[in-house]
Design brief:
The complex is a heterodimer of chains A (363) and B (91).
Chain A: H1 10-23, E1 28-34, H2 35-43, E2 54-61, H3 63-66, H4 69-79, E3 84-89, H5 102-107, E4 112-115, H6 118-127, E5 132-139, H7 144-156, E6 162-168, H8 171-180, E7 188-192, H9 193-199, H10 202-211, E8 215-218, H11 222-237, E9 243-245, H12 257-266, E10 267-274, E11 278-287, H13 296-299, H14 315-319, H15 351-362
Helix pairs in contact in A: 1-11, 2-15, 6-7, 7-12, 8-10
Chain B: E1 5-13, E2 21-26, E3 29-34, E4 46-50, E5 53-57, H1 60-74, H2 79-86
Antiparallel strand pairs in B: 1-2, 1-4, 2-3, 4-5
The chains are: A alpha/beta (363), B alpha+beta (91).
The structure holds iron/sulfur cluster (SF4).
Iron/sulfur cluster binds at residues 313-315, 318, 325, 328, 330-331, 335, 341-342, 344-345, 352 of chain A.
């Protein structure tokens, strides 16, 4: 397919990899922020292309993986009500809460539905006026404008039965939290391409300057990733720290202003809990007060749920790149894609699921 | 989850109430996509689609640039000739 196939050319990936071998001397770690990139890196076995002195560290950029147990529990609790239809993206159904997941709620006869687009959730609300339709909205900046647009659409259609359970997270505050963590040693960052498509690059210019770290806006195909790494390594070798756009077919410095405007219209920033990491200040979105009637957390009583984190799951350390999935005693044993213990084993973009899938194949 | 896929805009449907919608072809599979964030898009252009919304119109000249710039990285390398002959082919 156009704009995909030409960025998967094996010979070119190999040639860029040889160029990296030529310029690379320092022992460094480069983090790819986004789980989609982690998936590509594992699928194409990037270790083979890189010199031994470069380590790729997998970042927290999988919205499914960072959604905390506490909010999964709220979604499960809402789904258990007979007057509610709980709607979400397919990836969320298998993410474990304290007890069970949304898929088991569905198996037990609860009305849990999977959609492709937030607009599908609005349609379900329009078609089921006797029910309260709660859309469990996860995602980063990539998904935030679409989640926001669904609320605007529900308002335009005068729906009084559409609610958002909002777990929308923001990437730059999480990067700052990582940079402030002394146990995390990263010299270069590959920024998540589609987050930059929406938000542009300005937030990253501030971070690059503050932490003296090169940040490369990077796409998702093998050639995108290898050129992102080449640029990061080149800068690190020369002690430079600039924001460079290596995904310019989809990213501009300004980002998509229409989409940004919509996010600002509907959401305010708020402190959010990240799975296994804890609360990161101003790292998520909540509905503005004027959209009160669409806010699930304000219109349903969701207190008093006892949250239990899974034992023997080190998702927090995995998501901060401090450990790799193989370091987890549960990996591939009591935790596997059939029976995930933590969220990174559920989503195809989760590091644990990617290692399980591609490393097992290689062995 | 942040997956976004490039597809070619075939037609724009202005009638659909509040939403600006269009038909987008992903290698032959056609889907309805909301174009609210890319009101300037024209049929024939490629858009990057995420959860049913076009996030951006793909910048064709930049797409070409990225491939052209690669030749600067690997020009000194013997695989460059191979690159020239295989650059449009996939893996
Ligand atoms: S392998 Fe499973 S238990 Fe271990 S960190 Fe990953 S998700 Fe958690």
């Amino acid at each position: 397919m156009k704009y995909i196939d030409e960025y998967r050319n094996h010979e070119v990936v190999k040639a860029v990899s040889q160029a990296i071998h030529k310029i690379s001397e320092k022992y460094i770690s480069v983090m790819e922020i986004c789980g989609g990139q982690t998936h590509t890196i594992l699928k194409y076995n990037f270790e083979e292309y890189l010199p031994k002195n470069i380590t790729l560290i997998h970042g927290p950029g999988c919205p499914v993986c960072v959604t905390p147990v506490s909010i999964i529990d709220k979604a499960i609790s809402l789904a258990s009500r007979n007057d509610v239809v709980l709607v979400t993206f397919g990836d969320m159904l298998r993410v474990p809460g304290s007890v069970g997941d949304l898929l088991s709620a569905k198996a037990n006869g609860k009305d849990v539905r999977m959609v492709y687009s937030p607009l599908d959730a609005v349609k379900i609300a329009g078609d089921n006026p006797e029910k309260k339709v709660v859309f469990f909205a996860v995602g980063f900046e990539t998904t935030a404008p679409s989640n926001a647009r669904s609320v605007i659409e529900a308002k335009k259609l005068n729906l009084n039965n559409y609610y958002l359970l909002c777990a929308n997270m923001l990437v730059p505050p999480a990067i700052e939290a990582l940079m402030n963590n002394k146990n995390v040693k990263i010299r270069g960052l590959l920024a998540a391409g589609h987050v930059c498509t929406v938000m542009g690059l300005k937030e990253y210019e501030i971070i690059a300057e503050k932490y003296h770290i090169p940040i490369i806006a990077t796409g998702f195909e093998p050639l995108d990733i290898i050129t992102g790494i080449y640029e990061a390594v080149g800068q690190i070798e020369e002690d430079r720290y600039e924001v460079v756009n290596k995904y310019s077919r989809a990213v501009s410095r300004e980002g998509n202003l229409h989409a940004q405007k919509l996010i600002e219209l509907v959401f305010d920033k708020t402190d959010k809990e990240w799975r296994g990491i804890g609360v990161i200040p101003q790292s998520g979105l909540k509905l503005k007060d004027e959209f009160y009637e669409f806010d699930a957390e304000k219109n349903f009583i969701l207190d008093g749920i006892e949250v239990r984190e899974p034992k023997d799951c080190i998702a927090g350390e995995i998501l901060q790149g401090m450990k790799k999935p193989a370091d987890c005693i549960s990996f591939g044993k009591i935790c596997n894609p059939e029976h995930p213990l933590g969220a990174p084993m559920v989503s195809p973009e989760g590091a644990c699921a990617a290692y399980f899938r591609y490393r097992q194949v290689q062995q | 989850m942040c997956l976004a896929v490039p597809g070619k805009l075939i037609s724009i449907n202005h009638q659909d109430g509040n939403l600006l919608m269009g038909k987008v072809s992903f290698g032959g599979i056609v889907k309805d996509v909301c174009l609210d964030f890319v009101p300037e898009v024209q049929p024939g252009e490629y858009v990057l689609v995420h959860v049913g919304f076009a996030l951006i119109v793909i910048n064709e000249s930049e797409a070409q640039n990225t491939l052209d710039m690669l030749s600067e990285i690997i020009i000194a390398d013997e695989s460059y000739d191979k690159f020239q002959t295989t650059r449009t082919r996939g893996l």
